[in-house]
Amino acid sequence: MNNVVxxxxxxVFFAFFSLNLTTAFAQSELSxxxxxxxxxxxxxxxxxxxxVFMYTHEAKASEWFDEVTLIIWGPSAKLTAENxxxxxxxxxxxxxxxxxxxxxxxxxxxxxxxxxxxLGFIELKPMGRHxxxxxxxxxxxxxx
Length: 144
What we know:
Elements: H1 3-31, E1 35-40, H2 45-61, E2 67-72, H3 75-82, H4 84-95, E3 99-103, H5 104-109, H6 113-119, E4 123-125, H7 127-136, E5 140-143
Parallel strand pairs: 1-2, 1-5, 2-3, 3-4
């Protein structure tokens, strides 16, 4: 094989490889959602105020993610219904664009469904299927 043919084959190979690599990167960037979902289950007020809410709120305010959702699940539903400071912090996050969702089944179990609904900024819904969808998708999910 002469030198010119060898160089031409190498050029075609590198062009093909580069095109496939560029396409793979473009597809991976397109498939990743710029969305954060925070699953909050704890009834620890200090943890809520200094970790969960601080990070969740800042993630939206600083545009670290385009979409930020906080899910109230289990004991955090009761804490939310009973604690005015927690309610105010959640409302501030909601005003700044954080989607607030709560498990209606959990709220019913803790007897706080109406309390959470009356706040007006929490979307109550059965979360089992929704959480499963989040887990199976390419959103970023963290749990506290």
